[in-house]
């Protein structure tokens, strides 16, 4: 089977592998969209923008390496007919890696001077969305057919254990934005207890970062005015 061929979807309750993979893909779509949009806002805070950029680069690289090195061989062993399509997807990963290199090298500056960052962020967003359109019709049915929940749990735990710490809190923030409670339960089931204890703090940190990147220039001016008014009130009181 090759990329682009029509695949009949599996009916009935979805496996943990399909639920977690679909949620991860929704997160990748949301994260790359926000980065491309925020990079074009002169008022977007450079620190938060760099935080999101570094997270997108690290998360996508790790995700594709886990697929190429571990998941694809497992699926090919279970279904040799899938080898051609998976090889085509791996080639798309290689193309995306080059775009991620450009994104990682782009300077994040306050205000003007973000043209290279904008170009790289838009390119990564477009490549990711196109790649997922190619990948899901092949991958999701293959996971449903060949990846039982116990095998997926072992794979998922290994991926979590090897995940880079860069922007880990944004995983939680995006998952909660794009996922349902049932989907979140599937994803967090494989988190180690120590990580679960950190989820509330990670959620709060992610909310602050994402809120600052989504804010409009009008929002930022209103916040600045509120801060000035508060400061003036303190001066008068003093």
What does this structure look like?
The structure is a single chain. The protein is an all-alpha fold and 238 residues long. It is built from 9 helices and no strands. The chain has helices spanning 16-38, 46-78, 83-105, 115-146, 149-162, 168-178, 181-188, 193-214, 217-237. Helix 1 (16-38) packs antiparallel against helix 4 (115-146). The chain is globular, with a radius of gyration of 20 Å. 30% of the residues are buried.
State the share of residues found in helices, binned by percent. Answer: over 70%
- Structural class comes to mainly alpha
Distance between the termini: 75 Å
Written as H for each helix and E for each strand, in order along the chain, the element string is HHHHHHHHH
- Strand content bin: under 5%
| Number of helices in the DSSP assignment | 9
Residue windows where pLDDT falls under 50 for at least 5 positions:
1-11
Shape: globular
Q: Rg to the nearest angstrom?
A: 20 Å
Please report the total strand number as a whole number: 0
Mean pLDDT: 87
Major beta sheet summary: none
Secondary structure elements and their pairing?
Layout: H1 16-38, H2 46-78, H3 83-105, H4 115-146, H5 149-162, H6 168-178, H7 181-188, H8 193-214, H9 217-237
Helix pairs in contact: 1-2, 1-4, 1-6, 1-7, 2-3, 2-8, 3-4, 6-8
